[in-house]
Design a protein that fits this description.
Number of helices: 70
Largest sheet: 3 strands, mixed
Strand content: under 5%
Shape: elongated
Mean pLDDT: 76
Low-confidence stretches: 1-46, 85-102, 108-118, 621-651, 689-705, 1056-1072, 1095-1100, 1305-1316, 1416-1420, 1480-1487
Helix content: 55-70%
Number of strands: 5
Strand order of the largest sheet: 3-4-5
Length: 1487
């Protein structure tokens, strides 16, 4: 029995349910059997089957084997070409139970159909039909499946064009593809025949059906495309359907995922086949042909997209969606399944070449004129986005090389080339160096071979890059000057190069924008003098062209930026901006700006016609002071608005900066008198004219800017969509460029706001000023930044938010906008900080981080009072804006530091720690540590590490921020601990002291007890035991005290200029926060006093405080000018106050009990002699320091074994080492004596020490001299009695001391040394002269003198010693010249005093010394010049009259006067020669 002879056995009948469960194919076969039975002729039917008809025909016509074969082949060709296979299958009757109905096979969608289907049964049926037809089974099966596929594609009622299937079509195709897969498994399916059948009806094919054939592995896309004989038809069909697919991919539908998958598979296939280096040769056609088809399809798709962009498609249109979708295929993830990475790279290079060479219709001259319109901001976002995707695969060097190759070898589309350059400059971080190198190579080649193409390309590329601002590339003016403005330029090699350059520039003149011509004129190339004619010819040509364009170089603004290629600003508008800039410069410098002075001379036309009228805008004369804050404090004219369009502002009663500048110009004769009088008259009369529409004008004025502000608001709103949607981040840079353009329009800045030109930003912390319109714009930008940051943080952490924040901040960092931004930040943080919300604090902190990221491109900030007048980097500005003085300011500082550090650590988590370090100011990091230690006691314990996975940024993104939790979370981060290990970031003991001194105790967050506990912990537990390498003290309490004193003095010095109280006092508490810190110093100093003695036999020498004082005083500049003296005097005042606040034992070291030695006072003696002496008054120190010393002296002596001896030894040493202390004691003796007696008697019953009694006796002697009684004998030493007498006379207020001098017995010399007033000195010196005691030795005192001379020098300040020459020549008029000339020492003293007087004059110290002379009791006659002139005349007249013995040391005098006065030297030399050979100078005897 054969396979087909299996009759079904008879049995029980099947019910309806069983019949329904039978396979659909079996049911169809049963139906066929029924139809066959009905048509059987043996059963009475009359219909004959097709087989019988053929059989009868065969019987009637006998053919041979060859004829039969020919007939069979002809029949097959006929059937395959013209018959409907479905109808043919329906006509053919097979054996019972095996006839197939294809329509029901496709349409059936009952459950379980695919499970019970018998694959062998389907193949058997089709094989039988093929055998009956006499065709191969594989061909028949392919035709059957193709016919079914076409019917499915045509089943949808939606009219073409379309490329996607409906859900019902997908379901039917699924059944058909399963049958096809079964046929493939049985080798009964011909892919070639199938493809050929499909191409016959290609217009009916849907692209998704073709794609599903590929996905189901029935026929691959490559096989289908290769099977078509006409390549152009394939390219046209596939390109058309791919465009439709792109449109439907971007359309909102439920099958978008299917469309994207289809597009990805098609693109991958085309790229792999079109750009694979080793083509797959397994195809049925030529691999080269397939590669050409793939490349042609990709090229046609790109060309259609570029043409659509050029036609100006509207956003949201079908064409726009198609272009956007196709450009999206250039994303890198699209090619992940391609094994070879070279294919996508070659595809991207080919695409870039096609873009650059697409329809090159523009000429170079067109590019020169139009390139401004092709900047990044004006490039269609779709095209710039495509560039960015191409840049991802290609390295920067490859991009530049590819650009250069395309420009050298092909005609290019200049718009695409230059927009590509702009995108490259904006998007690549190292683009500036690459472009600069490329331009340099082009210029080198151009000048070497006189290649005009390279020259044109270099200028076009440089100008295009300069359009993107200095953050991306130097301005054109800077580039042109740097390239051609020096002898090392490319043009400096030969005359040929010069001629080539100027020929090129001259050829460009007809097409140049006015800006570029102005650059070439004002910054011309450096040309040797012999070739100067080349430059002058070009300048003349350029000026002629500017005249034709009605642009004048003379009418350019003073501060007009030549870097932009924008339209030239009208002189009237530019003048208003120049006035604002000039006022700002004048306000900060106090001088007329140099640009204004230069314009008044060299550009007088613009100065008189535009600048002065804008400056002299009439203002209403006001009787009350103008209020601050409303608009510009200097000008009533907003930037960019014509003065004529504004109402006259009020003229303040107290001149503001504008009025002061006008007055300075008037005094410098820079304002014509007629123009100034007109201005004053207009100011007086304009107030009388009250325009009725004044209010309306005030409201209309800002309305001209409302539209740009609205556009800026819209652009910022669109930015938020790009920030929060990860799929739109590719459009971020384009959106930022749009914001930049709208920002320029809103502020009326044109394109001249991008170059800082190295000028620092001037900022006043106390009263930051910005115009109302600037404040509106800055507030809008800051609000947008904060909102965008919070919105982006709700979607992703900072490290996954992309570069939007950095680009946003870079947009804010412009020359005209940055000062307004920093001023607004100063207002918000320094003045309104407590009112800021959490989102504001977080946003501004992130802004500060990105400002730090751009610190290298930002200028320094010169911060006015109350901060130091030095340039600060922008990140360090926030240290000043965030003080920690009060509870509110400390809370703001903690919040800001927490947010800034958290953001920095999260934003740059994948980068090196140096990045976080560079973006943050070390001061902010230290303030965070300070506030955490201060506020959170748990932070003072060793840290417990937080979970590394926890982000410190997460707590800051919550709706209500718990700042304490956020700060502690950050504190426990291991990344923060690693950051704090960096040098300069760890909080040191010195840093802690500086910050703690700023705290104001009365408004501190800590109570007095809590603050004291915190101080004790910080000093004794944290910083004192810490090693010095980490900012500690190595356990040395003396080091801790010395550091505290140093910081305390720094703080007190700076507090006077930092806005603290004018009456601030170190000890009394005027300086904020210093009282508690000084108490800690007192505690530590007491601890040092009570500590164990040092090892060794010698007593400790000196005190650490004097080392601190000496080091600080040595660092100060020495000089006699007022500033230097005041600075040193202020420093000494701080030293004295610290000494007075510490125990008196600091001044006097205690002697060892076992030693009979004087207390150690050397350090204090040195301080008095070297510093305090120069600021003593009338030969004495102040009472406070004098009393403090004697208290310390008695305390130290009373602890020694012999108190009286110790005191006597110390005071005896004072007579030679520090006599100023003794004279001070004499002055203050009435106040000192009671306290000294009380202290001495408290510990000793013996009388006062002998040296103290000697002071008492000197005081009594002076009192007796002034009494009517006879003077008692003078106790020794005499100079001490003289000093006591001097003080008594000064206190008595006597004008003449002749009677008192007459009572002195031989002690006049000593007394004269202490009497300083000129008249009194004359009386004293006259008394000495009458007693035949020479007073000339008083003017020959030196430090080497023993005895009285050295003592007297240590009593007088240095500036008084320097006044001795003045005193000498001022006193000469009181004495007889002849008597003086007879003294042997007079000539030597007179010449010496003259030389010293001339030395003061030559050294430039005359003014300072003269001020000191007139401020004291010495009233010199005349001015310095007249005194020197009189002294010189007196000396020249006296030299010939001096006796011979006066010239014994004339050699020394000649050597000293060699460089000072040649005439005096000649007189001395002549007199010396006369003494050596008197015969030469005797008159001859003639008779």
């Amino acid at each position: 029995m054969g396979a087909r002879a299996c009759p079904r056995p008879m049995g029980r009948k099947r019910g309806p349910e069983a019949e329904r469960r039978r396979p659909w194919l079996v049911r169809d076969m049963s139906a066929s059997q029924a139809r066959g039975a009905a048509s059987d002729p043996g059963h009475g039917g009359c219909r004959r089957a097709w087989v019988e008809l053929l059989a009868g025909r065969v019987k009637r016509q006998k053919l041979g084997p060859e004829g039969e074969q020919k007939v069979r082949e002809s029949a097959l060709r006929l059937l395959r070409g013209h018959l409907n296979l479905g109808d043919l299958v329906l006509e053919v009757e097979g054996p019972p139970g095996k006839q197939l109905c294809l329509n029901r096979l496709i349409d059936y969608d009952g459950p379980g159909a695919h499970i019970d289907l018998s694959s062998s049964l389907i193949g058997s049926a089709l094989r039988d039909q093929a055998a009956q037809l006499g065709v191969p089974a594989a061909v028949l099966c392919s035709q059957v499946v193709a016919s079914g596929l076409v019917r499915v594609c045509e089943a949808d009622a939606v009219p073409p064009p379309k490329v996607l299937l409906t859900p019902d079509q997908r379901k039917k195709l699924s059944s058909l593809f399963e049958v096809a897969q079964n046929l493939l498994a049985q080798s009964m399916f011909s892919r070639l025949s199938f493809c050929q059948e499909l191409w016959k009806v290609q217009n009916s094919l849907l692209l998704e059906a073709v794609w599903r054939l590929h996905v189901q592995n029935i026929v691959s896309l490559q096989e289908l495309l290769e099977s078509h004989a006409d390549s152009q038809a394939v390219v046209a069909w596939l390109s058309r359907d791919l465009r439709l697919l792109c449109e439907q991919t971007e359309a909102p539908c439920q099958h978008a995922d299917v469309a994207r998958a289809m597009l990805a598979d098609f693109v991958q296939m085309l790229v792999s086949r079109g750009f694979q280096k080793n083509a797959d040769v397994r195809g049925t056609v030529d691999p080269e042909r397939m590669s050409q088809v793939a490349v042609a399809v990709l090229e046609r798709m790109l060309a259609s997209a570029l043409e659509a962009l050029a036609a100006g498609i509207q956003e949201g249109s079908a064409a726009h969606k198609a272009v956007s979708c196709w450009f999206g295929v250039f994303s890198g993830h699209m090619y992940g399944s391609i094994i070879s990475t070279e294919s996508p790279k070659r595809f991207f290079c080919h695409t870039l070449t096609q873009i650059l060479t697409h329809k090159p219709v523009l000429k170079v001259s067109d590019a020169v004129q139009m390139q401004r319109e092709w900047s990044f901001a004006r490039t269609p976002p779709l095209l710039s986005g495509l560039y960015r995707r191409l840049f991802v695969v290609l390295s920067p060097e490859e991009l530049v090389g590819h650009l250069h190759e395309a420009l050298e070898t092909q005609e290019v589309n200049w718009q695409h080339v230059l927009s590509c350059v702009s995108t490259l400059v904006i998007c690549l971080p190292d683009a500036q160096q690459l472009v600069d190198g490329w331009v340099s190579r082009l210029l080198t080649h151009a000048f070497e071979s006189c290649d005009l193409d390279s020259m044109v390309l270099a200028f076009l590329v440089a100008r295009q890059a300069a359009l993107e601002g200095p953050a991306a590339f130097p301005s054109y003016a800077a580039w042109f000057q740097a390239t051609f403005g020096s002898a090392r330029g490319f043009h400096g090699s030969s005359k040929k190069a010069l001629v080539f350059l100027f020929k090129f520039l001259s050829d460009l003149v007809p097409f140049e924008a006015p800006r570029y011509l102005q650059v070439h004129i004002l910054h011309p190339p450096l040309v040797p003098s012999k070739y100067r004619s080349l430059l002058t010819d070009y300048v003349a040509l350029a000026r002629t062209r500017l005249a034709d364009l009605k642009v004048s170089v003379e009418n350019m603004g003073l501060y007009e930026d030549l870097s932009s290629a924008g339209d030239v600003t009208e002189p009237r508008c530019q003048a208003a901006q120049d006035v604002e800039k000039a006022i700002m410069v004048f306000e900060h410098t106090g001088k007329i700006p140099a640009a204004v002075l230069e314009a008044s001379i060299f550009r007088r036309s613009y100065y008189l016609s535009h600048f002065l009228p804008a400056l002299l805008t009439p203002r209403v004369v006001s009787t009350r002071r103008r209020e601050r804050g409303a608009g510009s404090a200097e000008s009533g004219v907003p930037a960019g608005v014509s003065p004529k369009s504004c109402l006259p502002s009020q003229l303040p009663r107290i001149p503001d900066s504008r009025a002061a500048l006008i007055e300075s110009l008037r005094r410098a004769d820079k304002i014509p008198p007629s123009l100034y009088s007109t201005y004053r008259q207009a100011c007086s009369t304009v107030g009388e004219k009250k325009p009725e529409d004044a209010a309306s004008q005030r409201e209309v004025e800002p309305s001209c800017k409302e539209e740009p502000l609205g556009l800026l608001t819209t652009a910022l709103r669109e930015l938020r969509a790009s920030v929060t949607d990860p799929t739109q981040r590719d459009a971020l840079l384009a959106q930022m460029a749009v914001i930049s353009e709208q920002l320029r329009s809103a502020l009326g800045l044109g394109e001249d706001d991008s170059d800082f030109e190295g000028a620092p930003v001037q900022l006043s912390v106390r009263s930051p000023k910005l115009q109302p319109w600037e404040q509106r714009v800055v507030d809008l930008l800051l609000t947008s930044f904060c909102q965008n940051l919070m919105a982006a943080s709700s979607v992703a952490p900072p490290d996954r938010q992309g570069p939007w924040a950095a680009h946003f901040v870079r947009t804010l960092c412009r020359r005209r906008l940055l000062p307004a931004l920093l001023s607004r930040l100063c207002q918000l943080l320094h003045h309104q900080g407590p009112s800021l919300s959490a989102s504001h604090v977080v946003g501004l902190a992130a802004l500060a981080v990105h400002l730090g990221e751009s610190r290298s491109a930002l200028p320094e900030v010169h911060v006015g009072p109350p901060t130091p007048a030095r340039g600060l980097p922008v990140p360090e500005l926030f240290d000043i804006l965030l003080p920690c003085r009060t509870q509110e300011s400390s809370a703001l500082c903690l919040k800001f530091c927490t947010a800034a550090i958290s953001y920095s650590l999260c934003k740059f988590s994948s980068q090196s720690r140096d990045m976080s370090y560079s973006c943050l100011s070390p001061g902010l990091i230290k303030k965070f540590q300070f506030m955490v230690f201060r506020w959170f006691s748990e932070a003072r314990d060793p840290p417990s590490w937080e979970d590394p996975a926890s982000s410190p940024w997460r707590p800051l993104c919550l709706p209500s921020v718990d700042w304490q939790r956020a700060a502690l979370c950050l504190w426990k981060q291991r990344t923060l601990r690693e950051l704090l290990k960096q040098e300069g970031l760890h909080l040191t003991y010195r840093d802690w002291l500086q910050l703690e001194l700023e705290i104001q105790p009365e408004v501190d967050s800590l109570s007095d007890t809590e603050r004291q506990d915190f101080h004790q912990w910080a000093i004794h537990q944290h910083f004192l035991p810490a090693p010095s390498a980490t900012g500690g003290c190595d356990g040395d309490l003396e080091v801790a005290c010395a550091t505290l004193v140093d910081v305390l003095m720094d703080f007190c010095q700076s507090s006077r200029s930092y806005g603290h109280s004018e009456n601030s006092d170190l000890v009394l508490g005027g300086c904020t926060g210093n009282r508690d810190i000084f108490s800690r110093l007192q505690e530590m100093a007491a601890g040092l006093e009570q500590g164990p003695a040092r090892l060794g036999h010698a007593a400790p020498r000196g005190h650490f405080l004097f080392g601190v004082f000496c080091r600080r005083l040595q660092a100060l500049a020495r000089g006699w000018d007022v500033a230097s003296r005041l600075q040193r005097q202020q420093e000494l005042l701080m030293c004295k106050r610290i000494l007075l606040g510490l125990p008196p034992s600091v001044l006097v070291g205690s002697p060892r009990l076992e030693q009979l030695a004087a207390p150690d006072c050397d350090d204090f003696f040195h301080l008095v002699n070297s510093e305090l002496r120069n600021f003593s008054h009338d030969g004495a120190l102040t009472h406070d320091i004098t009393a403090h010393f004697f208290r310390g002296l008695l305390n130290a002596c009373l602890r020694s074994r012999d108190p009286s001896l110790a005191a006597d030894l110390t005071l005896t040493a004072c007579q030679t080492q520090c006599p100023l202390l003794l004279t001070s004691a004499l002055l203050w003796w009435p106040h000192l004596e009671p306290e000294l007696h009380r202290r001495w008697r408290r510990c000793s019953q013996s009388p006062l020490p002998a040296e103290l009694r000697r002071l008492q006796e000197a005081r009594h002697f002076a009192g007796s001299v002034l009494s009517p009684l006879a003077a008692p004998p003078t106790p020794g030493p005499a100079w001490l009695c003289a000093a006591a007498l001097h003080f008594m006379i000064r206190q008595a207020g006597k004008e003449s001391i002749r009677r008192e001098l007459g009572q002195l017995d031989g002690q006049g010399e000593e007394a004269a040394g202490s009497l300083k007033p000129l008249d009194v000195c004359a009386e004293v010196l006259g008394c000495l002269q009458r007693k035949r005691i020479s007073w000339l030795p008083l003017f020959q005192l030196t430090e080497t003198d023993a005895g009285l001379g050295r003592t007297l020098l240590r009593l007088a300040p240095d500036h008084q010693v320097r006044l001795l020459p003045v005193a000498f020549y001022s006193l000469l008029s009181y004495f007889d010249e002849d008597a003086l000339l007879q003294e042997d020492a007079f000539l030597h003293v007179a010449v010496n005093m003259y030389l010293k007087l001339v030395g003061l004059f030559v050294a430039g110290e005359t003014g300072a010394v003269w001020t000191l002379a007139h401020s004291g009791d010495l009233q010199a006659q005349g001015d310095p010049v007249s005194l020197i002139t009189n002294a010189r005349l007196f000396l020249l007249q006296s030299i010939p009259r001096c006796p011979k013995r006066s010239f014994s040391d004339v050699a020394e005098l000649l050597g000293a006067s060699a460089d000072c006065d040649p005439e005096v030297r000649a007189a001395l030399l002549s007199r010396q020669q006369a003494m050596l050979d008197p015969d030469l100078y005797q008159e001859p005897r003639l008779f």
